[in-house]
Amino acid sequence: MRDFIFILIAIFACIVQSTLVQFISIGRAVPDLILIVICYVGLFHGKKAMWYGFGTGLFVDLYTIRGFGYNILVKTAIGWLLGYFSNYLYKKKILAQSIILLLAVWIQDLIIAIPKGQFYFRTFYGRIFPSSIYTVAIGIPLFFLFRRIDREGE
């Protein structure tokens, strides 16, 4: 039942990310709701995160159409990394979870920007850094909500 709820949460995150997120952007900073879900699943449900990454990446690629397969690859890789290292990461404190989410956002954005030749330090400070802080700020309350869902699903 818990897996079904998190699949619905992932679908909802994809829909909101592709339609409504631009309305809550602050300047060029946009939160990545999909990555928040993948990061949570990776930290607390292990290797399932790779499949969540694949599914959400597929959804994003189908919605955006340009560069088909790129989001699948990036989000699957992030999900795999988080799932693979979940047993080795300290994740009991919200500060640790926030740092892991921040690093996941940076890794994802670097994986996207470097091969396209779009990585410059002004890109990092102008878009990646503000978006990562915004993602973490929204991710913290969502992690609390997801933990509550996890506890009720046990």
Automatic annotation (TrEMBL):
The keyword Transmembrane applies. Keywords: Cell membrane, Cell shape, Membrane, Transmembrane, Transmembrane helix. Its main location: membrane. GO terms for cellular component: plasma membrane. It is found in: Cell membrane. It is a multi-pass membrane protein. InterPro entries: Cell_shape_determining_MreD (IPR007227). One of its GO terms (biological process) is regulation of cell shape. It comes from the Bacteria. Belongs to the MreD family. This is Rod shape-determining protein MreD. It comes from candidate division WOR-3 bacterium JGI_Cruoil_03_44_89. The gene is mreD.
